[in-house]
């Protein structure tokens, strides 16, 4: 792959280093695209298009692989977008100051996540965990639940089934 045309953003290197991923050009390019989206999630195809647009050819396969790596390393969040062609994964950069007073509410159906900053809530969860010999450690808490959209879908599905029967 060719040299990266812009290298000004030291934060990209720092965040890769922080999770012990080697700053390869593919990882840097993809992170830079995601950094530029102001917390909008993007799917692999859009990242591919955007990179092509600025003259960087990275194969779609590489993009999928790198996104997965960075998600596993805790650098990215994944959510699912419903589209005509089925569910697609979308990625966004984990907010940097995901402080000790925040937790994610995650829909277990569509995996959409919402960041909630609520220090007393997180502290209570921490204490409840400690009582049971568990600790949150350096991880950001995530609590699984179901989003209203998925709840509606489920109810609509059940309603239809009842009427049909
Ligand atoms: Zn959902």
Q: Overview of this structure, please?
A:
- The chain is of the alpha+beta class and 165 residues long.
- It has two domains: 1-96, Winged helix-like DNA-binding domain superfamily/Winged helix DNA-binding domain (Arc Repressor Mutant, subunit A, Orthogonal Bundle); 97-165, Ferric-uptake regulator, C-terminal dimerisarion domain (Dna Ligase, domain 1, 2-Layer Sandwich).
- The chain is built from six helices and six strands; from the N terminus they run H-H-E-H-H-E-E-E-E-H-E-H.
- The protein has helices at 10-18, 25-35, 44-53, 60-72, 119-131, 148-164; strands spanning 42-43, 76-83, 86-93, 102-107, 113-117, 141-145.
- The longest helix has 17 residues, at 148-164.
- Zinc ion binds at residues 107, 109-110, 112, 147, 149-150.
Keywords:
single chain, 165 residues, alpha+beta, Arc Repressor Mutant, subunit A, Dna Ligase, domain 1, 2 domains, 3-stranded antiparallel sheet, 3-stranded mixed sheet, 6 helices, 6 strands, 44% helix, 21% strand, disordered N terminus, disordered C terminus, binds zinc ion, zinc ion binding, DNA-binding transcription factor activity, FUR, repressor
Over the alpha carbons, how many angstroms does the gyration radius reach? 19 Å
Q: Which hetero ligands occur in this complex?
A: zinc ion
The number of E-state strands comes to 6
Q: Quickly give the structural class.
A: alpha+beta
| Biggest sheet statistics | 3 strands, antiparallel
| Portion in helices | 40-55%
Here the CATH topology of the largest domain equals Arc Repressor Mutant, subunit A
Shape: flat
Please name the CATH architecture of the largest domain.
Orthogonal Bundle
Query: What is the count of helical runs?
Result: 6
Question: Regarding CATH, which class of the largest domain?
Answer: Mainly Alpha
CATH homologous superfamily heading of the largest domain? Winged helix-like DNA-binding domain superfamily/Winged helix DNA-binding domain
Order of helix and strand elements from N to C terminus: HHEHHEEEEHEH
Biggest sheet: strand arrangement: 1-3-2
Strand content: 15-25%
Total domains, how many? 2
Distance between the termini: 59 Å
Q: Average pLDDT value?
A: 81
Name the poorly predicted regions.
Answer: 1-8, 160-165
InterPro entries: FUR (IPR002481), Fur_C (IPR043135), WH-like_DNA-bd_sf (IPR036388), WH_DNA-bd_sf (IPR036390)
GO molecular function: DNA-binding transcription factor activity; transcription cis-regulatory region binding; zinc ion binding
Cofactor: Zn(2+)
Pfam families: FUR
